[in-house]
Fold these 2 entries.
Entry 1:
Amino acid sequence: MHNLTIKQMSEKLHAGEFTSVQLTQHYLDRIAKYDAELNAYITVTPELAIQMAEEADKKLADGSAELLTGIPVAHKDIFCTDGVKTSCGSKMLDNFIAPYDAHIVTQLKKVGMPILGKTNMDEFAMGSSSESSYYGATKNPWDHQAVPGGSSGGAAAVIAAGLAPLATGTDTGGSIRQPASFCGITGIKPTYGAVSRFGIIAYASSFDQAGPMTRSAEDSAWLLNAMAGFDERDSTSLEREKPDYTAELERSLDGLKIGVPAEYFGEGLDADVAKVVKTAIAEMEKLGAEVVEVHLPNKDLAVPSYYVLAPAEASSNLSRFDGVRFGYRCEQPKDLTDLYKRSRSEGFGEEVKRRIMVGAYALSAGYYDAYYLKAQKLRRMVRDDFINAFQSCDVIMGPVAPTPAFKIGEKSDDQVSMYLSDLYTIPVNLGGLPALSVPAGFAQNLPVGLHIVGPYFSEAKLLNIGHQFQQVTDWHTKTPAQYQ
Amino acid sequence: MSWEVVIGLEIHAQLTTKSKIFSGASTAYGAAPNSQACPIDIGMPGMLPVLNQAVIGKSILLGLALDAEIGKRSVFDRKNYFYPDLPKGYQTTQFEFPIVGQGKLEIELEDGTKKVIGVTRAHLEEDAGKSVHGLEQGQTGVDLNRAGTPLLEIVSDPDMSSAKEAVAYAKKMHELVQYLGICDGNMQEGSFRVDSNVSVRRPGEPLGTRAELKNINSFRFIEKAIEIEIERQIELIESGGTVVQETRLYDAENDTTRSMRTKEDANDYRYFPCPDLLPVIITDEDIEAVRTTMPELPDAKRTRFVAEFGLSDYDATVLTGSRAMAEFFESVVGLTKEKDVKLCANWMTSGFSAALNRDGLSVTESPVSAEMLAGMIERILDNSISGKIAKQVFEAMWQGEGTADQIIESRGLKQITDTGVIEALVDEVLANNLEQVEAYKAGQTKMLGYFVGQIMKASGGQANPGQVNKMLVAKLK
């Protein structure tokens, strides 16, 4: 059951070959069997899942079902879910049960998608390995010694291990695409504003964007159809007609102009990864695409810019966690200052505290111009690089990450090295552009993703390219031996 | 050597919107604690602000009234600091790009001199909640009903040089925001809050260090607080001390100001543009659309009342004291068929205003409507009742006994104008006062008043005084 595509799964549900309850139970059984080792879920919600599956079966029976009705989903634990713990991977919110649903949770509930549970993640989405979770590191299903990537590492792992057919993630600096690459799955970060941020616990508001994490591009297109769309509760939500993201899947790649930036294949890129990416681009050429050289001269400014701006926003976004109204509160506070200091010192992990400190510093009087404003200028330069490049190509391709999944613990003491693992994904967030990661091969026996970046609102085109690539390759169907 | 006083005011005007600036929760005053705080106001995780568009038009209206630049692109910023009544750990406000830029307001002092006070800017922001002390031993409660209430912070230039000027400016602004209908002006409920920045210097020298006087909720106390703060600063400097930049609270009981916090405790607010909100873009068309809704402003109304109605400056000033008063007056004038503006004005400034003051009511709370007052004035003008009887009728209307006509009818107060009835009354009084009649005829003409009084008394106050007078004079010839 868990090796079917979403479309096949839907057809079988509609044909009555199995029920949503059976399908959901199948995944719950696999979670029970595998997740103790993998640690990809923070919370599993079997009762809720079955109850929702029963309702979905009614819809399937009475003919009101849509394509995704009855297909279970796992939400990243950053999405508020009514009545279910939403921890954001933090001790700070270990006791937090949201009294409302995030917009995308509402959307998927409306369609009738049973919720399997909430997936593990780096604390407050700050990290590239899912090791900073209060609930412990998630393992990479391909190699339990390796990280699944982050911050949506739990989501990537549950898809790779067949512990959910579909998952939701968020991507602030690469948090959908890098774990997708590390775990051999497909993930897309849509254009900023395409998916409502309502109910997503904010990390860096001007970057945060939710998207699907699935086995194939086709599956992502179906899930994105359900997630995207204007929401008046998010002022940065784009008020435009929602496209059908599956509409272009079958289009030929004939004449597609692929920009390949030479800068992306320089120092720091693992040779095996480079080979996988180049082979994948060559495959695209066989499908009728044409490669042109483009330049992104300011790409090295992206990581420094991001690591000023994202922490600056985070330092403010995370101020609400003060021990006063919800979340963790220290024992026996002596006075107000003690309440603040200890609640936050004890409730937040190291990486979160580091970024709050960095962000507060960058915004402080006397440093604002030198750091925050300067970083905003760099952000515009990086975005303009893309806009210029897209004048001579339709999409840009390159690696998602410089290496395959690294070992658990390998980079946890070296933050700069960890930050640099996002050097290909971060520029896309600075520009607010959409980008896709599709499985493209293996390096050192670990999956490697191909990064496809497009102009604003080109999601349907990116998914079309991913889908066409997946018609002639089978990397996306590969599963780790022990999870087959 | 003399001292020069420099005062600038920061006024927080709460905008009259039904819901909060970034959420749909109600802004009504006085609800049970935290009953009007939704997840957005509480700063719950994942919640996002959405701007209440109603605040934009209200801000533009003020900008136009102050002849100010309107910010075509204003930006919301976050002012970061920790406090229990500040749920998100930051206040959403406008820092670098306010919605209203440089403008001005003309004030008039008691001696009639006029002075133009610059208005630096006015920006939109959300109010904080409030801490409630003393609920339980050693504990402080937080009420977030007020959190997210829309405020327009109006910042003046440091153009005022006395407490009197400062209060004149504050009063003028208070009148203006109410005229514009953007703020209810209720100072007791905190809808209009005035913070005063006060400093002193020797003429020609650079600005002195200022102290800020906060949370004073009456114009009288603002004036007193500024005056004693000026005295305190001068005494301090003259005795060799230096003024420190600080916030001071006015203690009305002891008539002193005392330090609340000094600049050393001041936060670094780490302002930056709020990434959850888009810049507010205002077009020329938007501004023109608001301009068409601009009500007549107090100064223009006063001038018109003098020119159009021939009222005295005093009456015009009283009648334009609030927009509600002026509108009530104009309704009354409009509703009376026979125009006697002076009579309408007299009733507004005396009987009507006195009753409001006595019962502590505002114009809009008056139990006597403009229709009712006009109806009564009509009866005075058509001689149905005398001015004296009208006072009785007005009081009865005030007590809810009905319209003037109903009261005149039920109490039998209709004026006697029947010549035969009046003649009988005159004859009766003259017959009973033969001595006085003789005295009158001997030249004591002021006896006339005595006769009128007697006749009116005999008629129960209902005889038409004019007719009585006429007939008396004729009979006494």
Entry 2:
Amino acid sequence: MKKIHIALVALVLASTSCKDALKETPYDFVGPDQVGTTTEADAKLWVNGVLNTLNSGSFFQYAVYNRPLEVDADDVTGKDYAFQAMGAGNFQSTSDINTFWGGPYTLIERCNFAITKVSQITIDDASKNNALGQLYFLKGWAYYMLVRAYGPSPSSKNP
Amino acid sequence: MKQYYLLLLAFLCLAVTSEGWTQTTTVKGVARAKDTGEVLPGVSILVKGTTSGTVTNAVGVYSISVPDANATLIFSFVGYTPQEIALAGRTTLDVELESDDKKLNEVVVIGYGQVNRRDLTGSVSTVKGQDLLRNIPVSVNQSLQGQIAGVNVNKGDGAPGGGISMTIRGANSFTGSEPLYVIDGIPFTSAATPAGAEGSMQTINVLANMNPQDIESIEVLKDASATAIYGSRGANGVVLITTKKGKAGKDRVEFTTNLSLGRVSKRIPMLNGYQYALFQNEAYANASKYIGTTLEVPFPGKIGRDPVLGENTYLPGPEDYRDGLPEGTQYPAGFKGTNWQDEVFRPAVTQDYTLSVSGGNDRGTYLISGNYLDQQGVLLNSGFKRYSLQFNLERKIGKLLTIGTSNNIAYTTYQLGKTNTSGAQPSLISSTIFFPSTYPVNDPNSAFRESLINTSNLANPYKTTQSARDFTYSTRVYTTAFAQLNFTPALNFRQRMGYNYNLNSREIYYGRDLNEGRTPVNGFGMVSDNNYSQLTMESILTYIKTFGTKHNINAVAAYTYEKGVSEYKTMSATGFPTDLTKNFNLRAGLRPSPLQNGRNDNALMSVLGRVNYSYDGKYLFTASFRRDGSSKFAIRNKWANFASFALAWNAGEEEFIRNLGVFSTLKVRTSVGQTGNQGIGPYGSIYATTIANVPFGGSEQSGFAVDNGRGLVDPNIKWETTTQYDFGVDFGFMNNRFNVTVDLYKKHTKDLLQTIQIAPSNGFNTMLTNYGTVENKGLEITAVGTLVQQNSFKWDLNANISFNRNKIMDLPADQFAQRLYYSYDNIFIQRNGYPIGTIYGLVEDGYYDDIAEVRADPQFANWSETQLRSKLGEIKYKNMDNNPASISESTDRTIIGNTNPDFTYGFTNNFSYKGFNLSIFFQGVQGGNIVNTNLLKVRMNQLGNVPQWAYDTRWTEDNKADAKWPRADASQVRVMLFSDRYLEDASYLRLKTVNLGYTFKTPVKYVESLNVYGSLGNLLTFSKYSW
């Protein structure tokens, strides 16, 4: 019977003391809290991340971003293999409209996140304002494009 | 020769000396079955306390040497109660064995233990190894199709070694409905299929490494009482696989070989060269007539400019394809068109060899089994090979300790062929069917020709099978070991450890002659690996005791810990100077792709316990509990508890039921319990940043941004919980000759883990969260029994049928499942009150037959005559919203079908007469719809071939009334939207296996039995499916 007692105690101990065994340790990605907070280079990392959005598929990488603004104009209309669905007059089966909506919001969200992070970095004001300035500008530009294309659009109350 | 005689002499000497050394007595006798009086060959006889034993011969006679006259002999035989008889000086001992009440005394493996079927309170179905083998399966999960009520097995694609999915009692989750596989007690996970070329969706079968010949039995745990002990992974059911361990008795050597021939059972009738040319000419003519493009006939039958050769030459017309092309065209003379299906399909030979050695005594057992399987695919250059070794050993050491190990080492090779893609890339099967029949097989100008039809994602299938290189090599080591301390006969402690390592390694190369590698890509090479390793530790305490004569307790308490590590790496490059080095020297590629690798870990820790109490064998009670902690969930929700209760009444043992004389078994059972599903990937509950670099000042600068692809993170994410209620009755008639099991169940899953679509104005498009409820209700009926048993003729029947109704609830609004097929989004809708797999699309309403009909449609209210004419012969969609002026996919779609069947069934008839054995297995599904995505490629335009029946029913001026497909048109203005056209009835009945065999008993000395059989698979399919 003693053996059973020992075994049971071991069981209970084992189950409660190994909390660390269940902690998730990321290996192949960096958590947002792990990006540095002390140098100008760290602020630059966040700004670059936001600028990257402009090079992504949501914006200019596949020439999607400008299409809804330019096609189906008087001189840019025709078969769908040249002018895409919108140029052919078929607004139903195009993903460009969705990209044109989602892209600026991705930019806005990244700006908000970066603004929060950069505000917490302890560096000199000049560098901080440089970074924040770029971020605020991009955010404003994104809202501007949305309003131009869609009229009143939702906005978030974040910084 | 000399050595042989020496050996023989030595042998004889040994025999003689051993005779003289110990005073041995020889005991003889006959073994018979008590109920029929027939002799029993193959009965195993052991001398208790020693390792010596023998078996009875073909007439039931045995002869054994015993060390002393007072020894005890142990007689055992499958299906009969073992007997121990003390010799007490006798030298002749005949024995009569009683056949045991198979059904009730059958031992059933359940989670963390085993019970007699008599004492089972949950819903567990068993399939024995020999029943699995009747259908000559290549893999274990394939063999379960149609065998068990409530278990639905679907082959992902027919590729040898391709992925197979299994659902038990309906799908109750959006993130995955695969059950938990447990092999020899240790939960089993395997590495993912390594990344393939873009758009490839193929998966490899996770259970392909196990040889079905090595399986002793498979138990499927279906209800809460049986699965709750697996806690957070039991919601989808649990499949327990037990491998053969060897039996006490003489050493057995078994050799099994299967040779199979397979071929494609149905070819799709596509247009031949002549018809295709006519069809294309008509398509271009129609484009000119209805749309107004300039008329350019692709098959004019006169001299003209050949775009491929760049000069004026004779361009063939349709009649030339019918009669054979003349000299001077860009194609070989006499060419009549190609039937790609004939070029690419072949009869496939499968060879399967297994050699196993097993044996044991009352101290321990062993099994060693080796297997070689070579399965060709019906497509050229596709196939699957397996080399595996199974090694199981158990041994009692001293009085207290038992140790054991079971190991499986397998090396499998998959040559997949690109048959399963997302639709954005050419797939081998769709190319085989839709590639134009006017192109020759060996085509020096294929590059140019294919670029003309490249937009429809088709490529020369013959060339793809010859030069595409796509191999996956999978190495797997699966080993478990245990040590068991038997403190007392009632109490034992078992420490078990399992280690599972799986490495999948994939190599791909597409050369310049293939679509994927053509200029300017200049060859695409890729090497990618995925590996997964898992360590499982279990400490189990078991207590089995009978108090008084009536109280029986079977209790288990355990602690388990599992840790898994998954890693992957991929490298690829394009721009090779030559295709010679293929994927073996990726450095030669001018354009290497960015390097990719990663790692993620997961861990699971649990405490569990179960008590089975039975009073007098009649009243049974089971309670189980499990507390699971998983690393995948958010900090506040890492731990969860799962419990279950079950009650059963063995009414058949009661006096008043026994006196009725109708039921030999009557058991009523009911259970309720909770299980969970943790079917999300690791790190789902924390934010991640992703590398977001930006070019600046001429070089790339690093940047970080929150990973959008992951979606918005829910800090409260937790398990799905399934509460399951089950009510079942087991009937047995005529001394359990005939058994019927009926189960009624209801599964309620809440907090479904799903990635929901959220408004993009959040900055993310998706969020992984707990949302929604799914309910499954159903009925399962299984009937097993011997219908006829007379003289030497026996007819056994095993039939099952199951009904399941699925319903989604508690979603705040409609949402859609993930994309099925490239460019066809949002086809599967998830709406409250409807099942998972509900299909959403437009409804068609015939065709526009004349100008008046087009004009009458409010969509085209202000169109001119020329514009109206362009719509003749086009599909008319039903307007379902209040806006007749437009057909919009947002508002005009409706529910058009559902992929869930009304019921599924299977029945096996086994006939045996003397040594002959005939097995006939039918399996079927009734009801439900299939989305036939093959039809999405039937576009009636210049991009690809069409089936004969579509061509014959196309809309033409003469064929308006019977039109089933729109007019042939090459203008590319038409967009075919997703509608009920692509839905078909999924019902089918298939004669899956006919297996006829004969068993020779002891045909030659030393050979105990020889079983010869022939089998036909997938012989007949009755179905309304058009494809």
